[in-house]
Amino acid sequence: MTKRHDDTSMGGLDGSFAKTPWGQIVGARTGAKGRRRALLEDLLRRYWKPVYCYLRRKGHENEPAKDLAQGFFHEVVLGRNLIGRADPAQGRFRTFLLAALDHYLAGVHRAQTAKKRRPAGGVLRLDGGDLGDVPPPCKSLTPEEAFHHVWASTLLDGVLKTVEAMCHQNGQEMHWQLFRARVVRPIMENARPPSLKVLCARHGVADAVRASSMILTVKRRFQVVLRREVRQFVGSDAEVDGEIRELIGIVSRS
Prior knowledge:
Blueprint: H1 21-28, H2 33-57, H3 62-79, H4 82-85, H5 93-106, H6 110-117, H7 143-169, H8 173-189, H9 196-203, H10 208-231, H11 240-253
Helix pairs in contact: 1-2, 2-3, 2-7, 3-6, 7-10, 7-11, 8-10, 10-11
């Protein structure tokens, strides 16, 4: 009989964290052009929104901010071989990326180089509706605070979507509904969590003990996925807990 994998254990099937972007970056240094391109697009998907909001809070309008974001990823991350110069010993990837972005902005003369910054077809399409405007919480934040807020929000949103998909895949839709109602929604809406008694009546669960156990199952899964995601962007396992505390603090302050 095949042993069932316990998806609440730390680190996945082999007990280790998934391959990190730091690891991908190091591996891509000598990889094929297609591999480097794939890495660039992955980084862009993860970081375009924090970079864009940072640029908007710096005072750039929508189109110039998109142009600068394209330019940063095309000229610096790819063109100036930021991938090749990246070093996991530098710690958090977002800190490393933001420092590179600041350095890029300091040397940009937009009027002279606007046409050069955006390659034909773009590095990755950023003109869709997903960019939108700066999220309301960011409008009262400094550019750096906005960058970190959007980074944290995007990361948490991705973790929640992953956990929801895992619950559905495992036939635990009710587990997810209870977790969302008891944990996620109150945080998002800054409201009191409903009592277990109310949740049981609302969702047809037999008793509060059963409901509590179902919520705990999803909470553990959330913690595993969150740690795995955060580990991708720090230099070592030892930094994970501190990064999670900072992530929670960023969201709470916003």
